[in-house]
Amino acid sequence: MRQKPLEEDDPFELKGVILPAQDGTSLREMATCFVEEFARDGWSDEQLLAMFRNPFYRGPYLVWRAKGDAYVDAVIQEVRGRWGDSGSTEKPLSSG
Amino acid sequence: MCLIQAYYFDWVSGFVASVPVRFQRWVWGTLPAPTGEVPLPTALAADGASEQRSGAKIHAVGGSSGDPREGTRQDLLPWINCFEELSMSKVYNWQLGREMSYPYDGAYPKRQFAFVFNLNRCIGCQTCTMACKSTWTFSKGQEFMWWNNVETKPYGGYPQWWDVKILKLLEEASGEPQQWDGSQRDETKPYGVYQGKTIFEAAEKHIGPEPLRVLGYLPTDEEWRAPNIYEDSSTGYEGGKLGLSKEGASLPEHKTWFFYLARICNHCTYPGCLAACPRQAIYKRPEDGIVLIDQKRCRGYRKCVAACPYKKAMYRPSTRISEKCIACYPRIEGKDPETGGRPMETRCMAACIGQIRLQGLVTMNQDGTWAEDRYNPIYYLVKVAKVALPLYPQLGTAPNGFYMPPRWVPRRYLAQMFGPGVDEAIAKYLTPDRELVAVLQLFRKTNRIIFRYAIEEGPKVYETEVHGKPFTLYNDTIIGYGEDGQELIRTQVEEPVHVRPAKHLNSI
């Protein structure tokens, strides 16, 4: 749907809302949070990175688009260091 | 002030409507003499029944003596003043820590549908949105209807700007900012006492041509057009053949903070939609507190759409009546054959990829507070651990959806959205204790409703320091039980991950 240009004197136009701002630390904190959540569920580094690269998972994907592989990997390693190798004991399902 | 029940008779259709309208009593000598006309209630005006056309007569009971009187509006003018001010009942709202005004007396279900969403985990995949859409709102006239939506805060919203608009209206109407008194915080008042006005109390102060039971507004069609406007849809491009851009369109990428807010109807304890309905077509089920619109009684006046502060009542133009989230009540009732008669969580909960959702039924006291049920996971998260908080509690509807606030977002923004419990909730979540770690494992481990949990202690896995505090991980086992006490799920904190072999990757 097309958007009409802003008209300053339109009394019904919502012009803007003041939001508290934060620097880049909030983006890192969000990335850290996603990694922690899923690492504690037992996800491997590869699975975590794949989530960040997947455009259908928009939160992680926006971080990855903005910062790239190295940044995400650094966050994953930081979390691994903090929480230990929690829950990453993978074993294949027995076939059949 | 007094309550007057007014009956309207439409001489053309023979239709009789009982409209509970609360008048301000006319007291001779203390108020200026009424001038102008007493307007018809909006219900009848919207119905196309005007006094001139139908010759409607008003039968009003009340006044100083409680006598019934009948006549045209002109006859009754000396007797009643106008619809300016409403008198409301007083009900107790535990989320506000105080009594508040509500158009009806308090009436509470035996059990209440409630849910907890962990916003720290939501990755905005919209699977819940599509699970709901494909179950309930896939028909003609429901194209713009999303009972479940996920919006990117603080940028997106469905309908657009819904929360900014209602907060602004509330602040303008009450003439004061929304303040909480945290000094009175205790077990019965977990967030302190709300000092400002709710949407019902702001409506009491309303002065205008017609009465207002709930402060609200009707969003425009444009505001309803997408479940996450500008966030999941490209913006701003005009022109080009077929309206397409040669360069392609891109979605916004935020350089600062944002988070995903998943929303459904909160099935409030004091619903704004129910309070506003002129037909009394909206009701709260006594067995589970689910709020429903009676599709036969609803006549599409859209008062509920305007009154719901969360904007979760929606108008369907093809049927000309309103619809809303029904909390998948056949599943809650255990009608799904899969569960063998046991209560089952809603579609949006069961579909959650990020495992952010847990839904349950909490036991209610007669006064509208929650009965103590220490090992109900919802009760534990909201009342004991206090890591899950209501969405905009200051609006006053006592919503039954609770959120674990995202920890990276500025606290002032979160405090406005979830009330004064934010700091405590985030601190608790960042360094969870042994019980909280175990209860968090219950999220999305089963699609049956868990009524009680138990924890079997396991061995210590390791000690570490997390966010500056010591933390010890134990491999405890947590067991979820159903309504009948039968075990539904048993899982461990250190649950092993099973990887499906490549050749069976998509097997069901």
How many separate helices of chain A? Answer: 4
Structural class of chain B: alpha+beta
- Round the mean pLDDT of chain A to the nearest integer and report it: 79
Shape of chain A: elongated
What is the first-to-last residue Cα distance of chain A?
A: 51 Å
Q: What is the 3D form of chain B?
A: globular
- Could you state the oligomeric state of the chains shown? heterodimer
Named CATH architecture of the largest domain in chain B: 2-Layer Sandwich
**Number of DSSP helical runs of chain B:** 14
Largest interface between protein chains, with number of residues from each side: A-B, 44 and 51 residues
Walk me through the structure:
Chain A contains 4 helices and 1 strand, in the order ααααβ. Chain A is mostly helical. Chain B has 508 residues and is of the alpha+beta class. Chain B folds into 2 domains: 4-76, no CATH class; 89-233 and 258-437, Alpha-Beta Plaits. Chain B has 14 helices and 24 strands. A 4-stranded antiparallel β-sheet of chain B has the order 2-1-3-4. In chain B, strands 16-7-18-17 form a 4-stranded mixed β-sheet. In chain B, strands 19-22-23 form a 3-stranded antiparallel β-sheet, covered by helices on one side. In chain B, β22 and β23 form a beta hairpin. Chain B starts with a strand and ends in a 9-residue tail after the last strand. Classes of the chains: A mainly alpha (96), B alpha+beta (508). β1 of chain A pairs parallel with β24 (497-499) of chain B, so a sheet runs across the interface.
